[in-house]
């Protein structure tokens, strides 16, 4: 029997910059349209959807830092790249009738709102998709950390991390055919195993605030909705690692 309502009422979806790329373009219109359709479908279910976007399809600060560029400069340039992706996603959402707002941690008044926590929450309450760009606005912090921080700030019940694979594996499944997929993991287990889910700052912030992380394959149409409605796909990371998402929420509810 399908559930009567979604397992999560408000989520943060973390999209890497690579999710915006296509075979011939770093910012691929067809790829973004597919993501927008999935996001709009969940928003129409009455779920509050906030999105944190990366910028690695356009700019990778680490590579330029290794070549001698100042780390802060490289990181700020990466933040600008995330805004390009945020605007592209907003355009795709608006073209299919899904109302959205872009908020940036670095003020760009001509193209986006500044990040204001209460305003972001109000947008979500009105059914708008909120897209967060420019990371935290500070160098040395990743967009993974941004996702964890914004999720805690806006009262999201989970972070959905979209990837190219169907969950967290013991090793890179593209390189190691013997790699096995985990269905459930505790935060500490992820840290102890050194699994590449989110950076340690983001993971620790999630652990301290009891915020579950669900890692799944974005390339399968409808997967965002499946996760939000509680289907057991991908990998679930939380304090109650052996529990289904809905049961976990009951356990941590005040």
Written overview of the protein:
The protein is 39% helix and 17% strand. It is of the alpha/beta class and 254 residues long. The chain has a single domain (10-252), classed as Carbamate kinase (3-Layer(aba) Sandwich). The two termini are 28 Å apart.
- What would the CATH topology be? Carbamate kinase
Total beta strands: 11
User: What share of the residues does DSSP label as strand, in percent?
Assistant: 15-25%
Structural class of the helix and strand makeup?
alpha/beta
Averaged pLDDT, please? 90
Give the strand order, joined by hyphens, for the main sheet.
4-3-5-2-1-6-10-11-9
CATH class: Alpha Beta
How many structural domains in the coordinates?
A: 1
H/E series: EHEHHEEHEHEEEEHHEHEH
The CATH superfamily title: Acetylglutamate kinase-like
Through-space gap between termini: 28 Å
| Proper CATH architecture | 3-Layer(aba) Sandwich
Helix fraction, binned, reads 25-40%
The oligomeric status of these chains comes to: single chain
Q: Helix count?
A: 9
State the shape. globular
List low-pLDDT spans: 241-254
Q: What is the alpha-carbon Rg in Å?
A: 17 Å
- Give the biggest sheet: 9 strands, mixed
């Amino acid at each position: 029997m399908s559930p009567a309502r979604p397992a999560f009422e408000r989520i943060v979806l973390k999209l890497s910059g690579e999710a915006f790329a296509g075979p011939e373009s770093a910012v691929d219109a067809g790829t973004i349209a597919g993501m927008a359709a999935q996001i709009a479908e969940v928003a129409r279910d009455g779920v509050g959807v906030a999105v944190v976007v990366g910028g690695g399809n356009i700019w990778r600060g680490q590579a330029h830092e290794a070549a001698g560029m100042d780390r802060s400069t490289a990181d700020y340039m990466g933040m600008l790249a995330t805004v390009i992706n945020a605007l592209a996603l907003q355009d795709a959402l608006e073209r299919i009738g899904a109302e959205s707002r872009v908020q940036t941690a670095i003020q760009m008044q001509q193209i986006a709102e500044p990040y204001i926590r209460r305003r972001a929450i109000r947008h979500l309450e009105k059914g708008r998709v909120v897209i967060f760009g420019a990371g935290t606005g500070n160098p040395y912090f990743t967009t993974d950390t941004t996702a964890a921080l914004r999720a805690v700030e806006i009262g999201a019940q989970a972070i959905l991390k979209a990837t190219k694979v169907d969950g967290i594996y013991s090793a890179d499944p593209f390189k190691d055919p013997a790699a096995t997929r985990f269905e459930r993991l505790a935060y500490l287990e992820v840290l102890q195993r050194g699994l590449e889910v989110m950076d340690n700052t983001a993971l620790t912030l999630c652990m301290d605030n009891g915020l579950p992380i669900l890692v799944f394959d974005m390339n399968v149409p409808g997967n965002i909705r499946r996760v939000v409605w509680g289907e057991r796909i991908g990998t679930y990371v939380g304090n109650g690692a052996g529990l289904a998402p809905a049961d976990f929420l009951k356990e941590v509810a005040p």
